[in-house]
Design goal:
By secondary structure, the chain is α+β, with helices and mostly antiparallel strands. The chain contains 6 helices and 12 strands.
């Protein structure tokens, strides 16, 4: 307390000076209209700038909350779009996907529409799960396509879900041909890029060019002939030098796959069964 009194006594003339200055300014701005208006304008400008800075700081620290709200609204809108799309599909009996050039080639076949519920593209054993199963008519070893071409083959079937072995699986092996060239090979994926596969065992005398389409051969009961798999991007010699190994750029974007169709190829299966029965009959006669 003694120190405080000593401090005030030592600097009392400064305190008196500041007090008189404050009183003079109050009297000046209160009783003079011009000076008062200048003070009012300056004070408003300063306070306005302070409020602006305060608002900017508040906005910055509330960005995370705003982003969270926007994300929730985006999810809501996506769900609404999905429901509207499903409603339009149900009303029309088909979807725009069915009108794609690839699926028009399958008009003579029964197609079971499904949606992808899980998918992977970065493993050697990629699998796809779709939301249709045995209760929808799906059976093991059925072919699966999308609007851009081949997807894979049904591997496992449950009542309401199925697992598809896609092209992007090292165990996948699909018979394909070079469109309008008549040369056949086996399409498989070796890992790595999700848009590149290889057509092996193409004969050395085959004539084709870069950009030619590679389509399903139709030599099995899995896929009808002519479903696009991709286009020729590069040509290599096989390891033994007896055939070509053709690099294919796949037509299906597996990283963005949503709608698929399971091909019910019962008619082709029946023809193949008859051919096999005839071949067995001939073998029996020869024996």
């Amino acid at each position: 307390m003694h120190n405080l009194i000593e401090f005030l006594a030592k600097y009392k003339h400064w305190f008196v000076f500041v007090l008189l200055e404050v009183i003079s300014f109050v009297l000046l701005f209160q009783y003079n209209s011009y000076q008062g208006s200048v003070w009012f304008s300056s004070a408003n400008a300063v306070s306005g700038k302070v409020y602006e800075w305060n608002s900017a700081v508040d906005s910055y620290f509330s960005l995370s909350k705003i982003n969270e709200t926007l994300a929730q609204r985006n999810i809501l809108l996506e769900n609404q779009v999905a429901k509207l799309t499903d409603s339009i599909t149900n009303i029309k009996g088909d979807s725009s996907l069915l009108k794609s050039r690839q699926l028009l080639r399958l008009e003579g076949y029964s197609l079971i529409h499904g949606k992808v519920v899980s998918n992977s593209v970065d493993r050697p054993d990629n699998l796809i799960t779709i939301d249709v199963g045995s209760s929808d008519g799906v059976r093991k070893d059925m072919g699966v396509v999308c609007g851009n071409g081949v997807v894979g083959i049904v591997y496992l079937v449950a009542s309401h879900y199925s697992v598809v072995l896609p092209i992007l699986n090292t165990q996948s092996n699909i018979s394909c041909t070079i469109w309008k060239r008549g040369y056949f090979g086996s399409l498989h994926w070796t890992g790595g890029a999700a848009n590149i596969a290889y057509l092996d065992d193409v004969p050395r005398h085959a004539r084709f060019k870069l950009g030619d389409q590679v389509v399903t051969s139709g030599y099995s009961s899995v896929f009808p002939p002519g479903v696009l798999a991709g286009r020729i991007q590069h040509v290599y010699n096989s390891a033994d030098g007896l055939s070509y190994r053709v690099q294919i750029k796949l037509s299906t974007d597996f990283g963005n796959l949503r709608d698929v169709f399971v091909v019910d190829n019962s008619a082709m299966q029946e023809r193949i069964d008859i051919m096999r029965a005839a071949e067995d009959s001939l073998k029996v006669k020869e024996e």
